[in-house]
Amino acid sequence: MTSFLSRTALAVLVAVSPAALAAAAEIKVSAAEGNQKLIEALILAQEGDTIVLEAGRWDLTEGLSLDADGVAIRGAGADRSILSFKGQTGAGEGLLVTSDRVVLEDFAVEDTRGDGIKSKSSDQITFRNLRVEWTNGPDENNGSYGVYPVSSRNVLIEGVTVRGASDAGIYVGQSQDIVVRDNIAEYNVAGIEIENSFRADVHGNTATHNTGGILIFDLPNLPVQGGHDIRVFDNDVVDNDTANFAPKGNIVAIVPKGVGIMVMANRNVHVFANRLSGNGTAHVLVAAYPNDYDDDSYMFVPRGVYVHDNVYGEGGYAPDGEVGETITGVTGEPVPDIVWDGVTRIPEWLSWVSAENRVYIDEPEGTTFANLKMISQLLLPWSTRPDRDITGYAGSLPEPQAVRLAQDTRG
After folding, report:
1. Which pTM does this prediction carry?
2. For the chain, what are the domain ranges?
């Protein structure tokens, strides 16, 4: 396949001169020219080039890739320049980026067999005004992730819409220095997920009609451990009511329908100034990792979580699945606005953890809360009387500094 040819070999095949290869250029491609022109543009791209996707629809059967630094791919709009992978024969992503200082904006990726748009080991990667969608709606056979930077640095995701991902619409994993803002994530299993990552600002987003709205996770057995310094603020997390359609065995398959914001096994996470309503299981859920694991470097409990100044509407009226049953078995219905499973590291469960590792809550009067006071990873309650006294969790933590990215002109 031409996608695996070297730049030099392909240049010979398409009669591109060395001078043309050496000069940065604006390369316009149209759907009318066929898929080959687009494939060639990506393979031959040089630093400084802009690949312009004119309005139209490309029907692609193979994934695309970009490995040149300093390249921009710009379309005519997320509903005008459409890369459709409905006929994709492989199981890979639609577009894979493995280079630095890349800007992807103003186009759509539809119906990939695997992930929508993935970046791996990229520095200064920007996803802007994109749409990634599985047009058949929620389906376990959809690709796992919509926008998927992994092992990357200086990640900016803004103005993106993702629908139908069977894992997470917007997923940032094992990365650092991240801004996720002004996006729409709907009808995914997880709307937005920050996993095993350092220094992330998640704000101005709308997460609606997902199984879970915004998830901040740390998982075992991954090369990067110890996610920390996450701010989740000024988001609308509403009506997350889609039944979980993740394939069996996927970690997000445990997420009950109707979770607004979930913090699991991460450190120094600040959740504030969000607007939450219509989340049937719980608006905010703070929890330990619930499964067995074999990873000596992994810490399974959340540490240093500060929840404050959020606005809560109706919620907790339809707790879902095993998690919902466990919570309501202790709290009854409706489920409180904020639920913490209460798990801390043994033997510390008999006392209290150090100040920087505590859960702190400072919410408006009328906000409901429950510490389920569970003592093991198996989430077995040792008491049927949860701690509902929110005043016992008063206090605060120093807020992480705002994330600044070199490519962010708004930063």
Report:
1. 0.92
2. 134-393
